[in-house]
Amino acid sequence: DQSLKPQIAAPQLATNNPTLTTVALEKPFCMFDSSLRPNKSYVIYLYVMKASASAISSLVTNNNSKPLNSTFLQTRGGQLGPYKAALFNVPNCASPPKFTDVGDVNKASDVLKQYLFRVGDDGTCLYDPNFLAVCNPPLAPDTTYRFKYVLVDSTEGIMKDQTLWSDPIKTRRVKLPLKIDTWPGRRSGGMIVITSILSVLVFLLLAGLLASVSSAVMGSEDSSAETKHMSQTIQQSEPRPQLSSE
Questions:
Q1: pLDDT in tens, 42-75
Q2: Of 119, 134, 148, 182, whose Cβ has the fewest other Cβ atoms within 10 Å?
Q3: Which residues make beta-bridge pairs with 43?
Q4: Which phi and psi angles does 117 have, rounded to 5°?
Q5: In terms of Cα–Cα distance, which of 152, 150, 16, 26 is closest to 96?
């Protein structure tokens, strides 16, 4: 059904989606069933294109219906046209992953890999000279992209079916350092300044209080010593009674 198009993954399965550099999509379960033929081998190609790219350059096949092998670098990250970001097997519509298994820690990762594909998930392939597979490098932050799935006959190497381009999906914007909230309770900048001033005042108050207590204690010790000294002096100065001789 060519009215179908890639969809962003459900938030229950992919939190924080999109991120700054990735977009998690649902894999094309049951999208191409009508185009599959017995005893044939098929694969899915995923193409990525910036939404700002020209509609004229949005074709993903040549005149012979062969899918393009344009890369991220050749298209300037999708700016000049679509690039191939992934190649994977056709999802099994007869036995899709069980969403109930997502709650199982031992099965959750495998279920998500079967159900989702994360575009932009490979941060090393562009700079690895020995990397020969399809490169899926990080997307650009604060940028709108479109995505397309293509069904390819592995034997003939030609396209058999394709979806429409997805709706525009935008990656997240980088936050400025001053706007990053690192305090619990989402305190504003003004509250942070006030809190800092109050902390300094409390420190000074405690320091003054400790100084006062220390001074009072030392003054008390000096007074006690002085009183003791005076008492001894008085005792020494008092005349002793003389014994009368008989």
A1: 999 999 999 987 766 789 999 999 999 999 999 9
A2: 182
A3: 89, 152
A4: -130, 130
A5: 26
Report the amino acid identity of residue 57: S
User: What is the structure's pLDDT at 194?
Assistant: 76
Task: Compute the distance between CA of residue 221 and CA of residue 202 in angstroms, rounded to an integer.
Answer: 29
Q: What does the longest C-alpha to C-alpha distance in the chain come to?
A: 151
How open is the CA angle 39-45-46, to the nearest 5 degrees? 150
Q: Which own/partner pairs from 130-135 qualify as long-range (CB within 8 Å, at least 24 positions apart)?
A: 133/87, 134/84, 134/85, 134/86, 134/87, 135/71, 135/72, 135/85
| DSSP-based three-state secondary structure for 23 | strand
Distance CA 81, CA 65 (A): 17
Q: Which amino acid does the sequence have at 155?
A: T
Structure tokens at 240: 């002793």
Least Cα distance to 119 among 170, 54, 195, 158 occurs for 170
Within 8 A by CB and 6+ apart from 192, the residues are: 183
- Rounded distance between C-alpha atoms, residue 125 and residue 136, angstroms: 7
Which two structure tokens, joined as six digits, stand for 17? 């989606």
- Token couple for 14: 């992919």
User: What φ, ψ does residue 98 adopt, rounded to 5°?
Assistant: -90, 120
Place of tokens 């399965």: 13
Residue type, position 116, single letter: L
